[in-house]
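Next up, a specimen:

>
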Amino acid sequence: MAIVTVPKNARLLLVLQDGVDAKGNPRLVNRTLGKVKAGVLPQDLYDVANAISGLQTLSFVGVQESVVNELNVQ
């Protein structure tokens, strides 16, 4: 019996720097974009995140994808 994963939905998280703390460490915040189509190519997600980051006042640090998969028996 094989188990197959089926992507159901995804979220795109922009990681931005919002200054530094008292010790000089970067203070990071996330901006979440929901209802991203599951199964989108990673390069496409990065390109969209990079374009959106240009509209932010905070410095762009990185991007993360959060995916919910359904497990099905095949």
User: Anything to note?
Assistant: The first helix runs from residue 42 to 53. Residues 3-73 form one domain.
